[in-house]
């Protein structure tokens, strides 16, 4: 009998089947609505990832508010997924909902700046640091544009990324290490370009592998998260970020820090909290309270280099920007999120709640003697069904236990707790209550009790 995370595969399969049946039986309206309406969509869902949750069919959301979602069948669920960080500050935070209502009658998209845009620029500098900003609509786009700029000013082709990373659907980052060599990831739909011409992979927490990748002199930028949050949760080893900064500078590569997830760390993100000094800073998802918005900023020296490049660039398309980006609704939401939602008080609440959750999960794991561990980055908590700490993407990939994780996720949802799909991530918003956190800990304990 195969063992997964300290459990027998057969036991996991039995548990999964029972939980999937219970989920389906409790959702006749959702099932009927999907049967009637899902045919209009490619893959039966409006965005294909929505098929990838572990449930037998997707949950149809009737309403989301604060840290709660209600489904079409009337189940009120504690939401710890929070749109996988898009709603990290809760669903429809009151200041954001007010700002949307106020802007609704004053124009939605104009291709022109406004006084509110200027105020957003001032607040971005105040919260994240004195950079020169651009507004995009998704963090994927922000990373793409940041990479273009890095390649433009360095005249080099490659991005250095870490094995197991995720930075959005940026083609160039979709590489991995195999036996020490950079190769394109399997599974990419319609990929026709040779990604190894534009990217090189290194191992997180391994400065020697970074130095080796930089030695060829063809790397425009290192693109990294401060913590690897997209393959389990891998914390940086002491000195790793200082070493990265130093290597980037010595080899003439820019350092792009992608804080799309680590914005959970505190006001200003991980970089501000931990004193990192990127050349380019990227964040998105919740930065405008859930209104599709991303921001990227460059330091003053990088801005000067870009100005010199731009002045000598031939006329023509830049390859950067999208029509609906930097629109008035984004700015209305950015301003109130930066000033009224991303407050030190809210982060303190989130931090305290996440610490309570991490402690509760750790205790539940110890109670059954599972060889698992828990990692927390500010408001972001993850349990990993393998011993820790993990050092890099290779270890994180080995630690992943998809069948077991899906079983736990399904079991938690049946007990009223939604956590992020694809990995075991839970977020604490300012709206999340201690009672919700304790219910999650109890449900997790109950699921583990049945599994072990
Ligand atoms: N960067 C990181 C670190 C991410 O985790 C993600 C998405 N999970 C992105 C960028 C892309 O964000 P989006 O899907 O909103 O473009």
Structure, explained:
By secondary structure, this protein is α/β, with parallel strands linked by helices. The chain is 40% helix and 16% strand. The chain is built from 14 helices and 18 strands. It has helices at 9-25, 28-37, 94-104, 115-128, 139-154, 207-214, 240-250, 269-274, 300-311, 328-341, 344-368, 393-399, 402-414, 434-451, and strands at 3-4, 7-8, 61-65, 68-71, 76-79, 132-136, 158-162, 175-178, 181-184, 199-202, 219-224, 254-258, 280-283, 294-298, 373-377, 380-384, 417-418, 425-427. The strands form 5 sheets. It has a 7-stranded mixed β-sheet with strand order 6-14-13-12-11-7-10, sandwiched between helices. Strands 3-4-5-17 form a 4-stranded mixed β-sheet. A hairpin with a 2-residue loop joins strand 8 (175-178) and strand 9. Helix 4 packs parallel to helix 10 (328-341) and helix 11 (344-368) packs parallel to helix 14 (434-451). The longest helix has 25 residues, at 344-368. The radius of gyration is 22 Å and the shape is globular. The two termini are 15 Å apart. The structure holds 4'-deoxy-4'-aminopyridoxal-5'-phosphate. 4'-deoxy-4'-aminopyridoxal-5'-phosphate binds next to helix 5.
Helix and strand topology:
Blueprint: E1 3-4, E2 7-8, H1 9-25, H2 28-37, E3 61-65, E4 68-71, E5 76-79, H3 94-104, H4 115-128, E6 132-136, H5 139-154, E7 158-162, E8 175-178, E9 181-184, E10 199-202, H6 207-214, E11 219-224, H7 240-250, E12 254-258, H8 269-274, E13 280-283, E14 294-298, H9 300-311, H10 328-341, H11 344-368, E15 373-377, E16 380-384, H12 393-399, H13 402-414, E17 417-418, E18 425-427, H14 434-451
Parallel strand pairs: 5-17, 7-10, 7-11, 11-12, 12-13
Antiparallel strand pairs: 1-2, 3-4, 4-5, 6-14, 8-9, 13-14, 15-16, 16-18
Helix pairs in contact: 1-13, 3-10, 4-10, 6-7, 11-14
The structure holds 4'-deoxy-4'-aminopyridoxal-5'-phosphate.
């Amino acid at each position: 009998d195969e063992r997964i995370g300290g459990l027998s595969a057969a036991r996991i399969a039995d548990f999964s089947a029972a939980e999937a049946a219970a989920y389906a039986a409790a959702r006749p309206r959702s099932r009927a609505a999907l049967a009637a309406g899902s045919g209009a969509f490619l893959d039966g869902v409006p965005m294909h990832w929505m098929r990838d949750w572990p449930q037998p069919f997707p949950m149809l959301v009737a309403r989301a508010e604060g840290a709660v979602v209600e489904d079409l069948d009337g189940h009120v669920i504690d939401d710890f997924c929070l749109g996988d960080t898009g709603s990290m500050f809760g669903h429809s935070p009151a200041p954001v909902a007010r700002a949307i209502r106020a802007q609704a009658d004053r124009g939605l998209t104009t291709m022109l700046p406004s006084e509110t845009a200027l105020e957003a620029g001032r607040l971005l500098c105040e919260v994240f640091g004195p950079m020169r900003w651009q507004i995009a609509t998704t963090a994927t786009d922000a990373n793409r544009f940041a990479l273009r700029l890095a390649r433009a000013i360095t005249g080099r082709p490659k991005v250095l990324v870490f094995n197991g990373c995720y930075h959005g659907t940026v083609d160039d980052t979709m590489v991995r290490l195999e036996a020490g060599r950079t190769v394109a990831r399997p599974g990419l739909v319609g990929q026709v370009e040779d990604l190894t011409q534009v990217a090189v992979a290194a191992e997180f927490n391994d400065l020697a592998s970074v130095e080796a990748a930089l030695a060829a002199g063809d790397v425009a930028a290192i693109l990294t998260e401060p913590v690897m949050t997209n393959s389990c949760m891998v914390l940086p080893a002491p000195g790793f970020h200082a070493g990265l900064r130093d290597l980037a500078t010595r080899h003439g590569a820019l350092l792009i820090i992608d804080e799309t997830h680590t914005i959970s760390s505190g006001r200003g993100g991980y970089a501000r909290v931990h004193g990192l000094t990127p050349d380019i800073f990227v964040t998105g998802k919740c930065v405008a309270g859930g209104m599709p918005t991303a921001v990227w900023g460059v330091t003053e020296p990088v801005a000067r280099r870009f100005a010199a490049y731009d002045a000598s660039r031939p006329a023509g398309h830049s390859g950067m920007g999208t029509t609906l980006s930097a629109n008035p609704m984004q700015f209305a939401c950015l301003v109130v999120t930066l000033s009224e939602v991303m407050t030190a008080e809210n982060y303190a609440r989130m931090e305290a709640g996440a610490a309570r959750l991490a402690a509760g999960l750790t205790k539940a794991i110890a109670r059954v003697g599972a060889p698992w561990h828990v990692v927390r980055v500010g408001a972001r908590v993850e349990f990993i069904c393998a011993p820790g700490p993990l050092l890099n993407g290779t270890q994180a990939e080995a630690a992943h236990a998809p069948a077991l994780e899906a079983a736990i996720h399904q079991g938690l949802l049946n007990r009223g707790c939604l956590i992020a799909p694809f990995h075991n991530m839970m977020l604490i918003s300012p709206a999340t209550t201690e009672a919700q956190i304790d219910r999650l800990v109890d449900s997790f304990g109950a699921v583990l009790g049945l599994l072990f």
